[in-house]
Design goal:
Elements lengths: L29 H5 L13 H17 L4 H10 L3 H9 L4 E5 L5 H18 L1 E5 L44 H6 L9 E6 L7 H4 L4 H7 L4 E6 L4 H4 L6 H7 L6 H9 L4 H15 L4 E7 L9 H14 L19 E9 L3 H13 L5 E6 L12 H14 L4 E5 L3 H10 L4 E3 L12 E3 L13 E2 L4 E2 L9 E3 L7 E3 L1
Parallel strand pairs: 1-2, 1-4, 3-4, 5-6, 5-8, 6-7, 8-9
Antiparallel strand pairs: 9-10, 11-12, 13-14
Helix pairs in contact: 5-11, 5-16, 11-16, 12-15, 13-14, 15-16
The structure holds guanosine-5'-diphosphate.
């Protein structure tokens, strides 16, 4: 069967309007130039300024990345005694930002994207620390031509035990500021951007303009985050002009950067296309439903199933079975394929039963599929993450998406798709809320733990009221998002 959408791709579109570099070998990564044949065409224009910023970044990464003399010198400089580093850091030719894996794959993709935007804005080279396991192996293709974004495994790498760094570490920004030292002279610093930083203004000063001026002099920054902190970068007036030129539409940051960075490996792409060709290729319309349950927001299976059905039928995403009759004779019914992604199998089973019994007459036929139901999250395992990525990518091929509030897995699917989802709102006292779902105001992910520290006021403030395009999230009101 013909997998791709019917439209013949414009040759210029192969590079998504200049978002993708043409400098890659196609066989090493099938998905890079082919995902566009499966996804709805993006409705969101890319600024030429972003395109040139990406090309500039690629040449920086090529010049400074692992394997280059500049990289070797930068690592060597980390070994120099502390008093020598003050002079050498000011003359550093390349500077780096090292990402560390924490939490699930959705969180990881959002923090990689946030780190990448920060790297773009500050001329740093983004490198991913694998965390010692195989969780990143055979998951993504390399995004930058002629180089790698993986920090080489090196037992002698001078910054030790990166996975164990925490906010109180001697080399953390927090500790340096508490000791009253100048962060700008450190050879490297650890930046703690995990949600538990919320009471620590020294960590949150990362988002302040004057702090950024000092950090600019530090050759190596290592960070950990479990949050999409892109909206935080928009709070800094020092980045305002640059960001406005890169993203005239603030609400498409993840959409563009995510499609630039995340190309599933050939193994994952094989999973995606096999599933797509078998179940979705022939459908007239594809609906994605992402069902995520969180321990902090308990709800029974029946209650949540009711919420999903209520939402989808109320919003016209799925037909009401008994009302689905009445199509004019002779006209073939429209085929709707529903992709359910969830750790649990019950929701797709119930939906499948409902439409199998009632759904094959009338204007629409509904078929329901779920690729996996893995039961529990195991984000340290390679094969588990490959399946999760395959499902996020499949979700992004949908024509309409229903997601679960607060889930970064859902944010990635909607963002890659370029769609504002219908969001299943969190339960209240174990019950579905009165409004089962809401159409999101933006396709952007929510930054769940924005800084409370207001840099201008030098006191606690409200990150949702500082700049025009950063507002409180609908699905998680204490967070903020770009609109
Ligand atoms: P979040 O916890 O919903 O914000 O999303 P994350 O992706 O950060 O973490 C959840 C992890 O649980 C995922 O990365 C997967 O490993 C697993 N998971 C959750 N939902 C699904 C699903 O629908 N399909 C698959 N394959 N894995 C899932």
């Amino acid at each position: 069967t013909a997998g791709p959408l019917a439209t013949v791709p414009d040759p210029r579109d192969r590079l998504l309007g200049g978002l993708l570099s043409p400098d890659f070998d196609e066989t090493s990564c099938h998905s890079r130039y082919r995902a566009l044949l499966y996804r709805r065409p993006s409705m969101h224009a890319i600024s030429s300024y972003l395109v040139s910023a990406l090309r500039r970044y690629e040449s920086l990464h090529r010049r400074c990345g692992p394997g280059t003399p500049a990289y070797a010198r930068a690592v060597e400089r980390l070994r120099e005694p502390p008093n020598a580093s003050a002079t050498s850091s000011s003359s550093a030719e390349c500077s780096y930002l090292v990402w560390n894996p924490i939490e699930g794959l959705g969180n990881r993709m959002l923090t990689i994207t946030s780190g990448f935007l920060y790297a773009l804005l500050t001329d740093r080279v983004l490198l991913l620390h694998s965390g010692g396991g195989d969780a990143l192996d055979d998951l993504f293709c390399e995004p930058f031509p002629g180089s790698t974004w993986i920090l080489p495994a090196d037992e002698d790498f001078p910054i030790r035990d990166m996975g164990k760094l925490n906010g109180g570490h001697h080399e953390s920004l927090r500790a340096v500021l508490r000791r009253g030292e100048d962060p700008g002279v450190a050879p490297w610093l650890y930046i703690h951007l995990r949600h538990d930083y919320s009471k620590v203004h020294q960590d949150q000063q990362f988002f302040c303009e004057d702090m950024q001026a000092q950090l600019q002099r530090v050759p190596w920054l290592v960070f950990q985050s479990d949050n999409y902190f892109v909206p935080g970068l928009f709070l800094n007036p020092g980045h305002e002009r640059e960001l406005a030129r890169m993203f005239p539409r603030r609400d498409a940051v993840f959409h563009h950067l995510g499609r630039y960075l995340f190309h599933p490996s050939n193994t994952v792409w094989g999973m995606v296309t096999r599933y797509h060709d078998e179940y979705f290729a022939k459908a007239d319309e594809r609906v994605g439903i992402q069902v995520r349950k969180f321990g902090w927001a308990p709800i029974s299976t029946d209650e949540l199933y009711g919420q999903i059905l209520n939402c989808s039928q109320r919003e016209g995403i799925l037909p009401v079975p008994n009302a689905a009759t009445g199509g004019s004779e002779g006209q073939p019914a429209k085929q709707k394929a529903v992709l359910v992604v969830s750790l649990h199998g019950e929701y797709s089973e119930k939906l499948r039963d409902l439409y199998r019994k009632n759904g094959s007459t009338g204007r629409e036929t509904v078929s329901v599929y779920q690729p996996t139901h893995l039961g529990a999250q195991r984000s340290g395992e390679q094969h588990h993450n490959q399946k999760a990525l395959a499902e996020m990518v499949l979700l992004s091929f949908s024509d309409a998406v229903v997601t679960s509030a607060v889930s970064t897995f859902g944010y990635v699917g909607q963002g890659l798709a370029g769609l504002r989802p219908w969001v299943l709102m969190s339960p209240v006292d174990r019950k579905a809320p009165d409004a089962p779902c809401r159409r999101a105001a933006t396709m952007e992910p929510c930054f769940h733990a924005p800084p409370r520290y207001d840099c201008r006021a030098k006191a606690n403030g409200d990150a949702g009221r500082i700049v025009r395009h950063v507002r409180h999230c609908e699905d998680f009101p204490q967070g903020v998002q770009l609109v």
